[in-house]
Amino acid sequence: MQLLDGKALSQSIQLELKAEVEQIVAQGGRPPHLVAVLVGEHPASASYVRNKMRACERANFRSSLKKLPVDIAQEDLLAEIASLNQDPEVDGYILQLPLPAHIDEQLVTQAVAPEKDVDGFHPYNLGQMLLGEDSYLPATPMGMITLLERYGMETSGKEAVVIGRSNIVGRPMSVLLSRKHPQGNCTVTVLHSRSQNMAEHCRRADIIVAAIGQANFLTADMVKEGAIILDVGINAIDDPKAKRGYRLVGDVDFEGVKEKVSAITPVPGGVGPMTVVSLLMNCLKAYKTGAGKALEK
Ligand code: NDP
């Protein structure tokens, strides 16, 4: 079994990005600048944002955290977004989800300038992806494709099953795995909460992407011998032995399936770090295409 070590790979990509930034700075440019907008004090969100800021530091990016109060009015959040859109010193930014219930997530996501949408959530970028045109790919699916690519895994002609159909993970991953691309060209089945015969579908799959948010959902009896497993889930389960009283597990019963599969991502240390480094890759791309300058008023 090959462990698809997203943590190690993301660190080596960060070093590549760092070298590129050093070159930009040596030639008189400024480093790329990523801004994270965090509304409220959601503990998991705060920890995800911290990881993103740390990755920026490691790659010599400039990073800023914009903390906004949980009860911010929607129009004030939209004003913040408009100001980030127009700031020539900001190349890309993310709105950390989830947003508080009184905020219309779709409306504010659409207010992000597509040129600075390094999370790849804007309908323009999702549409470009669907058309196979250049765009910012959504960070988590992009991270998984990069992982397959860097581990030299061609997927053409394979049967892929994606469990979960969210707009940020499952659905875009199903699009990427079916596009004409060395890490695409799969025959893709998308499963969700209304799917029947889940185990049967999974047992046919050469590649399974588990993105539902249920601890240890995918068990050994659902997996074909030699399958490749990408585990997106992040679930906290009680563990009295752990320092914080809980530990993080994925959607896959790692211990149960590990002897059966040919390759698998661990949780933590698999898809999560690849998501973070994808943001940086998208931000460098935004910097190079002059997203900041283009939108300056
Ligand atoms: P959502 O809650 O938005 O979507 C979950 C999807 O799973 C839905 O399509 C839902 O179906 C489906 N689903 C839920 N339960 C079942 C079930 N029992 N059987 C079949 N399908 C089911 O989640 P996200 O896509 O945002 O995230 C999924 C997981 O990945 C979470 O644990 C999240 O924390 C994690 N995550 C990890 C990231 C990383 O970087 N590692 C990044 C983003 C998310 P339906 O549509 O019918 O409701």
UniProtKB/TrEMBL annotation:
GO CC terms, sorted: cytosol
Amino-acid biosynthesis keyword on record: yes
A Gene Ontology molecular function term of the record: methenyltetrahydrofolate cyclohydrolase activity
EC number of this enzyme: 1.5.1.5, 3.5.4.9
InterPro entries linked: Aminoacid_DH-like_N_sf, NAD(P)-bd_dom_sf, THF_DH/CycHdrlase, THF_DH/CycHdrlase_cat_dom, THF_DH/CycHdrlase_CS, THF_DH/CycHdrlase_NAD-bd_dom
CDD domains: NAD_bind_m-THF_DH_Cyclohyd (cd01080)
Keywords: Amino-acid biosynthesis, Histidine biosynthesis, Hydrolase, Methionine biosynthesis, Multifunctional enzyme, NADP, One-carbon metabolism, Oxidoreductase, Purine biosynthesis
Keyword check for Cytoplasm: no
Swiss-Prot/TrEMBL catalytic activity: (6R)-5,10-methenyltetrahydrofolate + H2O = (6R)-10-formyltetrahydrofolate + H(+); (6R)-5,10-methylene-5,6,7,8-tetrahydrofolate + NADP(+) = (6R)-5,10-methenyltetrahydrofolate + NADPH
Residues of the Tetrahydrofolate dehydrogenase/cyclohydrolase catalytic domain: 4-119
GO biological process: L-histidine biosynthetic process; methionine biosynthetic process; purine nucleotide biosynthetic process; tetrahydrofolate interconversion
Involved pathway(s): One-carbon metabolism; tetrahydrofolate interconversion
Residue span(s) of domain Tetrahydrofolate dehydrogenase/cyclohydrolase NAD(P)-binding: 138-289
Top-rank lineage group of the source organism: Bacteria
Binding-site residues for NADP(+), renumbered to this chain: G164, R165, S166, I234
Pfam families noted in UniProt: THF_DHG_CYH, THF_DHG_CYH_C
Subunit field text: Homodimer.
Family: Belongs to the tetrahydrofolate dehydrogenase/cyclohydrolase family.
Function: Catalyzes the oxidation of 5,10-methylenetetrahydrofolate to 5,10-methenyltetrahydrofolate and then the hydrolysis of 5,10-methenyltetrahydrofolate to 10-formyltetrahydrofolate.
Protein name: Bifunctional protein FolD
Species for this entry: Saprospira grandis (strain Lewin)
Gene name of this polypeptide: folD
